[in-house]
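Hey team,

Filing this mostly as a record. A colleague (T.K.) asked me to run one chain through the structure pipeline before their review meeting, and I want the input and output archived in the tracker in case anyone asks later how it was produced. No errors, nothing strange. Just documentation.

Input sequence:
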Amino acid sequence: MNTSPSVRIVLSLRINFLCWSFSFSLSTILQQQFNRVGRVEHGSVALPGVIRSGSIGAESLSMGTMPSAQQQVIMGQMHRGHMPPLSSAQQALMGTINTSMQAVQQAQADLGEVDNLPPLGQDMASKVWIQNKVDESKHEIHSQVDAITAGTASVVNLTAGDPTDTDYTAVGCAITTISSNLTEMSKGVKLLAALIEDDTGGSNDLMGAARNLAGAVSDLLKAVEPASGEPRQTVLSAAGSIGQASGDLLLQIGENESDERFQEVLMILAKAVANAAAMMVLKAKNVAQVADDTVLQNRVIAAATQCALSTSQLVACAKVVSPTISSPVCQEQLIEAGKLVDRSVEGCVQACLSATVDGEMLKQMSSAASVVGQVLGDLLEHVCHYASHGEPIGRYDQATDTIMTVTESIFSSMGDAGEMVRQARVLAQATSDLVNAMRSDAEVEVDVDNSKKLLAAAKLLADATARMVEAAKGAAAYPENEDQQQRLREAAEGLRVATNAAAQNAIKKKLINRLENAAKQAAAAATQTIAASQNAAASNKNTAAHQQLVQSCKAMAEHIPQLVQGVRGSQAQPEDLTTQLSLIITSQNFLQPGSKMVTSAKSSVPTVMDQAAAMQLGQCAKNLATSLAELRTAAQKANEACGPMEIHSALTAVQTLKTELQDAKMAAIDMQLKPLPGESMEKCAQDLGSTSKSVGSSMAQLLTCAAQGNEHYTGLAARETAQALKTLAQAARGVAASTTNPQAAASMLDSACDVMEGSAMLIHEAKQALVSPGDSESQQRLAQVAKAVSHSLNNCVNCLPGQKDVDMALRSIGEASKKLLGETLPPSTRSFQEAQSELNQTAADLNQSAGDVVHASRGSSTQLADASGKFREDFDDFLDAGIEMAGHTQVKDEQIQVIGNLKNISMASSKLLLAAKSLSVDPGAANAKNLLAAAARAVTESINQLITLATQQAPGQKECDNALRELEAVKGMLANPNEPVSNLSYFHCIESVMENSKVLGESMAGISQNCKTGDVPASHTHDAIAEAAQLMREAVDDIMVTLNEAASEGGMVGAMVDSIAEAMGRLDEGTSPEPEGSFVDYQTTMVKYSKAIAVTAQEMMTKSVTCPEELGGLASRVTTDYSQLALQGRLAAHTAEPQEIGFQIKAGVQELGHGCIFLVQKAGALQITPSDSYTKRELIECARTVTEKVSMVLSALQAGNKGTQACITAASAVSGIIAELDTTIMFASAGTLNAENDESFADHRCVYKQNVNNWGHFVSPHEHSQTFTDAQSRASCRAVSPPGTATAPPTTVRLSRG
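Output structure:
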């Protein structure tokens, strides 16, 4: 059996055997003890000899000596007759192992076949996608293998000691880490195997290596079971198998960073530690043999045994982590194993010092321990050297820092020539070291250009050093001469400048390398945290915390591939500034979602019931936080070193996007363009629509910053533009790949190429504009290019399926509406009754089509195209019917009213189509759904107004028709009840429905009664009306029963809590409703509700003792009052001046909301258990807290009641102007905007300029804002506007830097 030297260490256990023979391999242990160190009692089992007469006479008698004590260790399988009962911690570990074993078995089953991928194209984007996915899969597999090997090493270290001292929770955490990462690794391996070429059987080898690793993990889990009784060597052997399998898997994916030479040296050093420890143990054996005290002898033996065990663990850990030694967690495990060896060596030395006073033996023991320490230090140094990648440029840091520090000392020592000369000597030595380092790097540099640069920089630095030395000699020779001191100071300054110039490239290279390493570790830590989060999901009892963690993991998962791609690109092209900037940007973008995931993970740890899973999640969150801190520092320093490159990088990126789109067009022509996995027509169309607005916004910002000559903000705007264009290009390609019409695909790609071409030109012009910010010609070119890009963006969006149909409908409505502009109406060809019937029918059809458009805007592009086409046809029919009806109107004023209503319907219809178009391309746009619903209601109301006007002579008819149309309009709400239609809470909805149900029942009874007594000739309809009324009353009764049951359920407190939480959430919504009153109005209302809450809280304190069953009604009252308070608080915060008062009001109301939630929860709990005194005390405390929070809200309100009415009035006036401009824009979009009284733009130009100048005098510029000149405003007014909106008139543009 091949074992490590420390395992072959023989302890002095002397046993005298005379006539008894034992077979240890078949022995039965009645009471097994783990890792117990004892001492064998020596004695003789021989019986005294008995002399008897011989049967054949006298026989010879031989005498001798007993053989010396034999020293032997026998290992093998033993029968277990009895095992001690498992502790609770061991039982928990068994549960973790069983769960992990199931996960391992599932992973082994999943590794039976590779993933199935859809057919992929051969265009550039497809190849880039494949390569990115390969890189991402390799990164994930590598990080997961890192975690598996680190977890294995942790298991080895944690299970080394006495079972009674083992931290079984930590062992379970390590095992959970192994199994969870193995599960995720199997998914990555299957995807990678499907992506790589399989001509040489590469995928089969990859899958086989992954299965081998899963099998090795299974063996380890079996070996570490507390009830298994497996010897220690089995655990170490299984761990070594995991290390070997991990190395094979990394070799298959091409991620084996550590070469064979490094692993060979690592194992040699580990075995050297084992050999040195074995020699030391032998020295300890000698000490034990001469020890007189049995206790001290046993202590030496125990210490030597522990030293041997810790050394064997070090060797095992080295085998496990050597393939993944680049991972910090693996390095930590190996270092921890080394620390265990160091501590055991120290313990053994101390035990020997206590056991004997023999100087020679102690000297030998100390010498042996020193050898162990030396080789152990060599091992750790070898690991640390590899971890730092052995970068020689690290020498530049120390020398550069020394030079900078010493030159500062020289500057501050002016007047003290002796001190200046002493510092000059130190400075000369530091520069000499730096020059030598640079020359050494130049000799080994492969790139000839870089070698020449290093040599030139070294020569420059050497010349500056020579001048400084000469100046120092002069200062030393003439210490009182101030001119000599000044020469030395100037020489030191020159040397400082030369140092910065010489070491800049090397330092920059190191900073980029550091950023690459930090990014890799951050991505790996994030991957581990996601795996830990998924593993902890099953035992997380807090649903809200779990959902928050899931959302943060999803956001993080979107950024990990970008960071991995940034690292790969920087490593592939280390001299490319664009790839370096891309890495810096992706690193900076990675920080915010990473921090959110750390916060979510830490907050979820206490709610995870599985201790092992909770520990794993906590450790991963801690590691991620550390990695993010390092990434933040590295990104900041790299950004400072690289300087401003955003504009150049953005221009290069946009040009690359254009090339990819052109390549995609060639593939589309050949019918070879395929959608990428995960792409669909609807998803890509939505991405394109939403991104087009982002592109327009970022380009407008780019124009503004370039016009001001601000290079920093122009670079940031260019970077944002490039990022938005990348998403736009991907979406355009996805749309083209998903369509079956080659012509439509080519049109989409052509328009996207036009956008990229125009954007590249815009960025280039912005770069040129930075040179001369005030150049009017440059500003004009910027405006022209921006206008062209805006046109291209609109064309690109209009290429989306369904958008052209909407545009056709808009144009058709505009053309049809021209019939309303004539002086005379065509003669009527039908009777009044026929015209009225036709108008009613077409009105119903148009109203139905409007609802179809609303529904289709949330559906597919085909549905939107069909709905808009039908709406166009129904509008034409309705318009003709309306004109026919207007022809029957004899009174001129009434005829004008009908025509005016038709115009209103035309405008409302155009707004509806525009809103539907906007929502279809960007469903997530702010307020888009509300705008669409409002536009649909406007169409219905406009139709109702026209029908009312046309049928007002028929008593009751208009009311019935209006009611029917309104019922049709709200029918869609009932079909889709998951969207809110009001701001009412759940309880308010119940109350409202109950109240309106009563009114509805009474109204139906009234309808039935009045129909019988207002229209006697139509008596044949009475029975039908009565039956319909009865059915309605029965339906109302059913609704009332259902509502009463809902109101009486015991879970009402949960709904109250949700209502309060919703009210709190609406406080922070970005878009607040338009206030109708002043701050004072809202202040008064808030004071009323705040006091009402305080009074109710006091009453709840009393009722908690006297009448707990009434707490439900009081809690409902608190909920109702707080909902009103939150609504008023949102409006008060919106109208408060200054803004800080609004923030204080929101914060106070939020805090009060938390207090109300706790109070309502305690009220519900006390209703369940009215006699619980502890709950009563908690409720009283919550009520007091609510009272305190009410006082905080009142204090905030008192601080904001000064001088806001004038601002509110002005804001209201401006809102009216904006509404008029919106109406004008809609007419312009529909093609129906015409000049009044033959006026022209020249007529208003002077007035317009004067008004703009006058307005500028009333605006006080912010200290961090900049105002455009008239020329700049003319340029900026032609900036890019999002598709679907009109270009705003020229105005003064302000860019805030705050």
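Quick notes for T.K.: The first helix runs from residue 88 to 110. The CA atoms of residues 1081 and 1132 lie 8 Å apart.
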